[in-house]
Amino acid sequence: MAEDKESAEALVSKVQRKITEAFNLFDDESNKTVDVREIGTIIRSLGCFPTEGELHEIITEVEEDEPTGFIRFEKFLPTMTKVLMERKFRPIPEELLIQAFEVLDQEKKGYLEPEELKKFMTQEGEPFSNDEMEEMLSASVDPDKNVIFYKDFVGMMTVSEQ
Amino acid sequence: MVISQTLVITIGADSLKVMDLSEEKPTIQEIEATIKILEDCVWKIETVLFLPAILANSYNMSPGLEDGLVVMLQEHQQLKDQLATQYLRWLEVKGMEGNKLLSRLEQAFCGSLRNVLRRLRAHPVLLKGLSIEEIVEESKKLAESLKELQCLLMESSLTDPSAEKEERDKSRYMHELSLRHHNNMELVSTLKKEVAAATKDKDVEISKKNEIIRMLKSSLFHMEKTSKEFATRMLLDAENQNLSDRKTSEGRRTNMQQEISQLYSELNSLIIKNRELEMTLRRRKNKVDSETENWIQKYDADMSDKQVELEEVSGCCAQETAELRELEKHYAVLELEYSQIMEERKLAQEQKEKEEREKVIKDQNAVIIQAYWRGFKVRKAMKGKNKGKKGKKGKGRKTK
What we know:
The complex is a heterodimer.
Chain A: H1 2-26, E1 33-35, H2 39-45, H3 52-62, E2 70-72, H4 73-85, H5 94-104, H6 114-123, H7 130-140, H8 150-161
Antiparallel strand pairs in A: 1-2
Helix pairs in contact in A: 1-4, 5-8
Chain B: H1 2-57, H2 67-92, H3 96-122, H4 125-128, H5 137-159, H6 163-387
Helix pairs in contact in B: 1-5, 1-6, 2-3
Organism (chain A): Albula goreensis
Pfam families (chain A): EF-hand_7
GO molecular function (chain A): calcium ion binding
């Protein structure tokens, strides 16, 4: 028990150290605050895959009562510790990702046209901005066939993640 | 009386018989016996005369004859032949021995003849069919003379009772009469005695009967007396009863009359009362009648009104039903249309839902991809940053 507790405490301190590191990376003025717009990047840099909706929820939780546009470290640390300890927003499995692409590929061709992907990504869900879209297309489109072999694309992403 | 008469008659008959027997008995019996013997002789002679014929025919005799008779006849024939030969021999040689033999043969022949005769007498039929042609003349004469003798005897037997006998008969008859008279007298005396006894008995009987009659008369007299008394008493009683009954009945009648008069008066009063009641009832009845009449009239009027109304209503009803039918037709068309429309709407709704569902799915999947891509991009950038020591910072700012 005591060991468990100790290891748990050690884990917690480890996690908190990681969070502190990530937070400090974006604390430009070194006054234990970050811009609210950097919170998504911080959370994602800690290995999470939150949606924009989930990100909003966390932001509303850690924000001050009067929105100042900045997030304080004291507020961010316990919430983020809890998130990481509970393993929320865990990495999305490869199968689930491929399934998502297959849903978009209604004719089961095994690939997607760039226009199709663009249409889905910019009109459904939590739409991409044009820059984001350009980036994604540049990373995913097969240069020879000018289509997206989504399985290859998913494989590329998951390999680089590991 | 009757008994005595019969007695007299019987006595008379007996005396007559006795008298006859005493006079005729010796002569008649003798004569009759003689006649019989003569008759027998005549028959025997005749039969003997027939014998030769019978002997001659003995072999041809009718089959009804007994064998014994035939044998006897043959034996007799043999005896006769022997006798004839012996006799002829005797005529030639007269001697003692021949004499003896002849006498013996004669005896045997006589016995045989007697037997034959006895047999023939038992069968008189044999003699009937034979003729008398061959009969010898002397023998015939003998028979005739014997018959004559017989006739004579018979005549004598019939004519014999003569005057000589009459005297004797008379005296005997007188004697008989006196005897009979004496008997009669005795009978009469006994009868008289009987009569006297009978009359005495009768008198006793009569006296007895008279006594009975007297007793009966007296009893009758008594009876009459008692019955008269009874009748008078009954009459008296009846009269008394009658009187009392009449009295009571009169009393009752007066009572009844009173009652009747009372009842009459009651009846009268009741009649008057009932008349009044009847009058009132009649008045009421009239009133009620008129009322009913009014009611009926009213009812009739109401009925006619109602009828008219009913007709109107039924007319309306018919019209409305026609209308209803039309409307129903219309309704059916509209309903069909309505159902079609509803079907279309439902289909549209389903389509819409399906689309929405698809959209949701797409949304979710898009979100997954987008989240993954954003995370991937940030970490890629962070790696690059870590290598180049805090390179680009503004990348994350693009997101929001």
